[in-house]
Each structure stands twice: as C-alpha cells, then as structure tokens.
C-alpha cells in the first residue's frame, strides 16, 4: 500500500506543483513529502522530480508515470463514489471557493439548508475575488460569475444575475439624471475591475441593438460592495449585480436608465474533470441550482 499511497501523493504534487502545498493539504511535514517521493523514485529506479531548479520540474519519466497515477486517482475516487452512493449519505469535506459578495449574500443560507439535509458533510468556504485555480487551490467547487474561458474543467450553470445602473438621489439632484446611456459619459461612473482586468465600457441593449458606452470615474474596485457603498454615499453611478444591491436598504438609491435593458451574467459551478464527480459535489451543485431557481 505504500507504493499506492506514494503514487497518489506524487499525482497531487504534479497538480499543485509545490512540496509545501501538498504538505499543508495532507497535514504532514514537507520533509516527509520529499522522503516519500524519493522512496518512490528508488522503487522505480528513475528520477521523477528535477530538484536542480528552484521551481518544481517534472522529468520526462515523471510525466509518463503521472498519466498512470491519474488513472489510479480516478479509480480510487470511483470506488469512494460508489460506496457513498450505495450508502446515500455523503461524508467528508467539501471545499468551495466563491466571489466575496456572492459568498456573503447568497451562499450562507444555501449552505445552512444543505448541511441540514446532509449533516455528515463539512463545508469549508473560501471567499476571494481573485481568479483561483480549482486544482491548485484544492477546491471541489469554484463559483464563477460571467463568461468562462476555455478550460479542461467541468462547469454547470446554476443561475444568473442582472446588472443594473444605480445612483443616489442626492447625486442625481446635483449632477442631473442620465436620460440615455450616452449621457453617462458626462458623469462620474464607478468602475468594477477584476484583477486588473474588467472594462471601461458599459453595455446596453435597446431597439436599435447593443450599445457600448465608454465610462470614466474616480473610483475603481475589484469588489461590488465598496462600489455600492460609494453609490450610497453619493459619489457617483455604478453598474452592479442584483445580489450586491439587495443588501442596500436605502430608498434614496435608485435604478436609472431602466428603459434600457442591461446585461444578464451567468453564474457557474466549476469542478475538476473526472469521469464522475463525487456524490458530495453533485449533490451540492444540484442543490445550489434549485436554490438559485427558487430565490
């Protein structure tokens, strides 16, 4: 069994590309991880890891061996899934990553209800507006909002949210109310930027088709909550999601440009590609889909 355990460890090392990350995940020392890899190399009579560089580098033999290790990982996972499905009661940890605002507004109630149905599960929720790697982060599920990039990961749409343009009545009284999207170019528009990306363009749809409006302003944030607070303080105008603004209880913050339909963005649950995802993963994604449909 030592060889099998070491093969599983080697597979995880290739995925995480870090002795320290594997050690932290398995709650063992970094030196023990290195010792077990050395033991595996001695058993095989080949070098799997090139230790002469600062970055972890897999040798050609290591890459070949990894393909067989992945098959073993899948077999072990399939065995666990089969037992879980027979039992019908998923156990263990479910690691989830989600954007901060979504995780603070939508997920808490959903998780409470889910755990009430599956008390043997333990959910660990990580909130971050940074782009995270599902595999390297060790997550079972990552929630992403917006257009997905091409990926070897699996994804399921679990819902959607609308983007609307919001402003405080005080700001509008002082600077005027935009009557058309083009009027926004004369206003302080508070921009959402994601990890240095995002856009200085807001999109609208009217009878003539889609319209792109370049915007500018003096406040940029990588999270919707600071922008919603800035709107509430009368700093400017922002385009934000429904679930972000549902947390603002202020009748003086209103939607504008309502005669123009704004964007609808999809919400996805991302999970690692396997022949069959674990029962706990499938159950939570199914539950979240139903929860989003009802709320």
Annotation keywords:
295 residues, Arc Repressor Mutant, subunit A, 3 domains, two-stranded antiparallel sheet, D-Maltodextrin-Binding Protein, domain 2, alpha/beta, elongated
Tell me about the biggest sheet? 9 strands, mixed
Strand content: 15-25%
For this structure, the CATH topology of the largest domain is D-Maltodextrin-Binding Protein, domain 2
Assembly state (oligomeric): single chain
Tally of helical runs: 11
Can you summarize this structure?
The chain has helices at residues 2-16, 19-26, 30-44, 60-87, 100-105, 107-117, 134-137, 169-175, 224-232, 242-245, 279-294, and strands at residues 49-50, 57-58, 92-98, 121-127, 141-145, 154-168, 189-192, 201-206, 209-214, 220-221, 237-241, 253-256, 264-271. With 295 residues, it is α/β, with parallel strands linked by helices.
């Amino acid at each position: 069994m030592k060889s099998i355990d070491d093969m599983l460890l080697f597979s995880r090392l290739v995925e995480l590309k870090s002795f320290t990350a594997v050690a932290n995940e398995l709650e063992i020392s970094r030196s023990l991880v290195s010792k077990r890899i050395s033991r595996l190399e001695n058993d095989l009579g080949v070098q799997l890891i090139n230790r002469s560089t600062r970055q972890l580098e897999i040798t050609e033999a290591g890459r070949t061996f990894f393909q067989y290790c992945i098959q073993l990982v899948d077999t072990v996972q399939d065995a666990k899934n089969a037992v879980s499905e027979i039992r019908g009661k998923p156990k263990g940890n479910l690691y989830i990553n989600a954007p901060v605002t979504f995780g603070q507004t939508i997920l808490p109630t959903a998780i409470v209800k889910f755990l009430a149905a599956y008390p043997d599960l333990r959910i660990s929720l990580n909130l971050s507006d940074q782009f995270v790697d599902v595999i390297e982060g060790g997550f079972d599920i990552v929630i992403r909002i917006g257009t997905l990039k091409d990926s070897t990961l699996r994804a399921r749409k679990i819902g959607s949210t609308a983007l609307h343009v919001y402003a405080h009545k005080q700001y509008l009284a002082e600077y005027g109310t935009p009557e058309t999207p083009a009027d926004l170019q004369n206003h302080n528009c508070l921009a959402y930027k994601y990890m240095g990306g995002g856009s200085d363009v807001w999109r609208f749809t009217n009878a003539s088709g889609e319209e792109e409006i370049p915007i500018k302003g003096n406040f940029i944030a990588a999270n919707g909550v600071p922008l919603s607070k800035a709107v509430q303080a009368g700093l400017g105008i922002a385009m934000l999601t429904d679930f972000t603004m549902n947390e603002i209880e202020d009748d003086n913050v209103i939607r504008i440009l309502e005669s123009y339909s704004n964007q609808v963005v999809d919400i996805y649950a991302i999970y690692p590609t396997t022949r069959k995802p674990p029962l706990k993963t499938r159950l939570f994604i199914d539950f979240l889909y139903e929860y989003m449909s009802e709320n």
